[in-house]
Design a protein that fits this description.
This protein has 2 domains: 267 residues, Aldehyde Dehydrogenase, Chain A, domain 1; 187 residues, 3-Layer(aba) Sandwich (Aldehyde Dehydrogenase, Chain A, domain 2). The longest helix has 22 residues. The N and C termini lie far apart (67 Å). It is globular, with a radius of gyration of 23 Å. The chain has 15 helices and 22 strands. The strands form 6 sheets. The protein has a 7-stranded mixed beta sheet, with helices on both faces. It is of the alpha/beta class.
Length: 474
C-alpha cells in the first residue's frame, strides 16, 4: 500500500499516489499518497486536539525527544543522505552535510527548549502599578502549519519541526511535492524518538488542497513558510489574523574589494554560486568587483567554477548534480539566452543536458536582465565591474530583496561601511552569502520575508507572550 501520510496518530492510505523520481536519471524511487480534503481536516483536527498535550509536555521530555531525534539522524546518516541525493538531486557529499546540520538543529532545539523563559516587570515603575507584582512568560501558540521547500528536504523541515516541538506546539507539516521521502523518513524517526503521535501530522499534496487549508484554517495559529516571494504574498493575503513567518527569495550580492584575497574570494564565491545547482535562496547571484581587479577576478571565478565536477549526485566525485526538474533547467537556459541577446557575455558554462545546467558565469550584464533583477535559483552568476567600493555597495543594495549579502575585504572601515549601507537580514564578511549557522537569526528584509528562523528565534515566533499582574495589597 502506498502511504506516507501520518494523520491522527497513524499512517493512512490517503488519495492518489505521488510518484517520486531520481532527479538525475528519472528512475522511480517510490510513491507517497496525496492528502484528500478529509485527510487535511483530520490532520488539523488531530493537531488541535493534541495542542494541550504538547503544551503540558514537560520541557525535559520535549528535550529528550529532540535529542533522541538528533541521535537517530546521526545513526541513519548514510541512508538519509542517499535519499536526499536521489530525490533532490543534491551531491552526496552536500547531502551528508545536510544530515549533520539537521542533527545539530535538533540538538540546539533541545537546548533552547530549556531556555524558554520570561521576565519580571517592575509594575510599580508607574503610580498605577503600586501594589502589583508583574511578570511575563511565553506560551505555545497551539498548532503550527509548516510548509517547506525542496532544496533542503531535511534541514529546512528540521528548522520548523524542531522549534515547534521545543516550544510545546502541535504540528502539521506539508513538505515539497518533489522531495517527500525525506520527510517520511524524518517522521518515522520522530515517532521512534517518542513524539506524541497525534500531535505531529504529515501531509503530501499541492498548495491548493493542503497549503491553502493550513493557511486559512483558524485552528492553525502559526504558519511557517519557506519558498518563493510570489507564494509568500498569497499566504500573507490569505492567512487572516495569525502569526506568519515567511522566508522568501533573494538575489544575493557579493562585493569583492581590491584588498581582498582574490584566490580565496573567487573559490568561496564560485562555490556559493554553484553548489546544489544554485538552488538555494542565498546562492551567489551578483558579484561586484573594482575595475582594478575585474579581469583577474573574472578569470579566477571561471577557473573555480570549471574545477567543480558535474554529474550523478550519487557519485562521490560529483560537486553539482541536476536541477530539481528539466523545466527549471530549460527556464534558466532561456534566461541566459535572453541575456546574451541583450549583450551579456558567457564566460563559462551556458549549456544544458536534460535537467543538468552547467555552472555559468556571465559578464556585460545590465540591471534589468532577468539574471540580475530576479532570483535565478540556478547555477548562474554575473560578475560586474564597478568604479569603486561605494559604487559596489550602491549596486548591491539596489534590489527589492534583502536576505543575505557578503563582502570580501581586509579593511575594517570598508566592513563597517558595508554593514551600515547594506539593508539585508544578514551581512557575511569574508565568506559567501550562502553561509548559515543553524542557531543564528536568519531571515530577510524588504521582499525577502517576515520574521526570523534559527532555533531561539523560531521558538519566539512560535510562542506568545502572556503578561501576569498580581495585586499584592488591598
Amino acid at each position: 500500500m502506498v502511504s506516507g501520510l501520518f494523520v491522527g496518530g497513524k499512517w493512512v492510505a490517503g488519495g492518489a499516489p505521488l510518484e517520486v523520481k531520481n532527479k538525475y536519471d528519472g528512475k522511480s524511487l517510490g510513491a507517497v499518497a496525496t492528502a484528500r480534503k478529509e485527510d487535511v481536516e483530520a490532520a488539523i483536527a488531530s493537531a488541535d486536539r493534541h495542542a494541550e498535550t504538547m503544551a503540558n509536555l514537560p520541557v525535559h521530555k520535549r528535550a529528550e525527544i529532540l535529542l533522541r531525534t538528533a541521535e537517530l539522524l546521526k545513526q541513519r546518516k548514510e541512508t538519509l543522505a542517499r535519499t536526499i541525493a536521489a530525490e533532490a538531486g543534491k551531491a552526496l557529499k552536500i547531502a551528508r552535510a545536510e544530515v549533520d546540520r539537521s542533527a545539530t538543529t535538533f540538538t540546539i532545539a533541545a537546548e533552547e527548549a530549556r531556555r524558554i523563559h520570561g521576565e519580571t516587570v517592575a509594575l510599580d515603575a508607574v503610580p498605577a502599578g503600586e501594589g502589583y507584582f508583574g511578570f511575563w512568560l511565553r506560551r505555545p501558540v497551539g498548532v503550527v502549519g509548516a510548509i517547506t521547500p525542496f532544496n533542503f528536504p531535511l534541514n529546512l523541515v528540521a528548522h520548523k519541526v524542531a522549534p515547534a516541538i521545543a516550544a510545546g506546539n502541535a504540528l502539521v507539516l506539508k513538505p515539497a511535492e518533489q522531495t517527500p521521502l525525506t520527510a517520511v523518513a524524518l517522521f518515522e524517526i520522530l515517532l521512534e524518538a517518542g513524539a506524541p503521535e497525534g500531535a505531529i501530522n504529515l501531509l503530501h499534496g499541492d498548495g491548493e488542497t493542503v497549503g491553502d487549508a493550513l493557511v486559512t484554517d483558524p485552528r492553525v495559529a502559526k504558519i511557517s513558510f519557506t519558498g518563493s516571494a510570489a507564494v509568500g504574498k498569497i499566504i500573507l493575503g490569505r492567512a487572516g489574523i495569525k502569526k506568519v513567518t515567511l522566508e522568501l527569495g533573494n538575489s544575493s550580492p557579493v562585493i569583492i574589494a581590491p584588498d581582498a584575497d582574490l584566490d580565496f574570494a573567487a573559490k568561496r564565491t564560485a562555490f556559493g554560486a554553484f553548489v546544489y545547482s544554485g538552488q538555494v535562496c542565498i546562492s551567489v547571484q551578483r558579484i561586484y568587483g573594482d575595475k582594478k581587479i575585474f579581469e583577474s577576478l573574472s578569470e579566477k571565478l571561471v577557473q573555480a567554477g570549471e574545477a567543480m565536477v558535474v554529474g550523478d549526485p550519487l557519485d562521490e566525485k560529483t560537486d553539482i548534480g541536476p536541477m530539481i526538474a528539466q523545466k527549471e533547467a530549460e527556464r534558466i537556459e532561456g534566461w541566459v539566452k535572453e541575456a546574451q541577446a541583450g549583450g551579456a557575455k558567457v564566460l563559462s558554462g551556458g549549456k544544458r543536458e536534460g535537467s543538468v545546467y552547467w555552472p555559468t558565469m556571465l559578464s556585460n550584464v545590465t540591471p534589468e536582465m532577468k539574471v540580475m533583477a530576479q532570483e535565478v535559483f540556478a547555477p548562474v552568476a554575473s560578475v560586474i565591474a564597478c568604479d569603486d567600493f561605494e559604487e559596489s555597495l550602491r549596486q548591491a543594495n539596489a534590489t527589492s530583496y534583502g536576505l543575505q549579502a557578503s563582502v570580501f575585504t581586509r579593511d575594517i572601515d570598508r566592513v563597517l561601511r558595508a554593514i551600515k549601507k547594506l539593508n539585508f537580514g544578514g551581512v557575511i564578511v569574508n565568506d559567501m552569502p550562502a553561509f548559515r549557522a543553524d542557531h543564528m537569526p536568519y531571515g530577510g528584509n524588504k521582499q525577502s520575508g517576515l520574521g526570523r528562523e534559527g532555533l531561539r528565534f523560531a521558538i519566539e515566533e512560535m510562542t506568545n507572550i502572556q503578561m501576569v499582574a498580581i495585586r499584592t495589597t488591598g
